[in-house]
Amino acid sequence: MDHISKIFQKIEIEKNVLYIIATPIGNLGDISIRALKILSSLDIILCEDTRITKKLLSNYNIKPNKLIVYNDQSTQKSRELIIDKIKHTKNSFGLVSDAGTPLISDPGYKLVTECIKNMIKVTHIPGASSLTSSLVLSGLPSHMFFFGGFLEKKINKRKIQLKNALDLNLSSVWYESPNRLVETLRIIIELNKNSMISVLRELTKFNEEVITGLTTHVYTQINKKIKLKGEIVLVISNINQIHYTKEMILDMIEQDYKNFSTKELASHISNKTGLPKKIIYNSIVEYKS
Question: How far is residue 158's CA from residue 102's CA, in Å, rounded to a whole number?
Fold first, then answer.
């Protein structure tokens, strides 16, 4: 048996257990070997959309025994039937979402809650998550953060969410529709135009884009686009809560000074920190001299 065959060979997995399996958020290559082995060994996979899950499995030549739909529309009765099957059959079960880690703004938590009530073991096969990817790429403080899930569709409720987010002493992460993003950015400018935000979309894909800076800067960049596509993640941080030391600024200059002209780098760091461009420019000149 060659090395590749060994990687994808089926493995023995536990019965009467629910496997929570993270899948890629965009790039199909972002899945662990362990996840592939388990997916290829399960009797039943619970998924949001069978077409999307089939596409992922087909990419790795995995032919599932059975796919069952479990999504936002699934009822308590559906969960009870699933629980009964996990407890009283010899099948092995796994749960996936369309993309990323199940239970993150996802109905999977209701099923996990029922499993815990019924003393069914639940285990997690970790992997991709747009939440953690966005924190990593935003350039905003990530040592403490709040995850708010999807922003409200109604503008008044959304405004309350954003006002509360701007009052926090930490970063907050939200999911937003591309169709409402411009309106949401206007609300943030109205509440605090000095806040720092990052808009991220098409994460892990070829057209991945990250725009970070003062809300006014991000709003200007977004407004230039004819049409936004893809899932949007919004990271918000109140600039008044961030104190950039001289050492922090020098670190930023050292990281990027070879990639930009002095003027471009001053603008880049100014957008990222909210500090005056002139001060940054002088610091770059001093660093290069």
Answer: 24
The pLDDT assigned to 278 comes to: 86
- Alpha carbon distance 35, 160 (integer Å): 39
pLDDT for the residue 5: 58
**CATH class of the domain comprising 131-239:** alpha beta
Q: Specify the CATH number for 3-128; select among 3.40.50.300, 3.40.50.720, 3.40.1010.10, 3.30.1950.10.
A: 3.40.1010.10
Distance from chain centroid for Cα 173: 9
pLDDT of residue 241: 53
HEC sequence for 8-48: HCCCCCCCCEEEEECECCCCCCCCCHHHHHHHHHCCEEEEC
Strands 67-69 and 44-47 turn out to be parallel
More confident residue, 271 or 63: 63
Structural domain spans, the chain: 3-128, 131-239, 246-288
Overall pTM surpassing 0.85 (yes/no): no
- Angle at which helix 277-288 crosses helix 246-256, to 10 degrees, equals 70
What is the rounded CA–CA span in Å between residue 196 and residue 192? 9
Residues 6+ apart with CB under 8 A from 200: 130, 133, 134, 137, 138, 208, 209, 210, 211, 232, 233, 234, 235
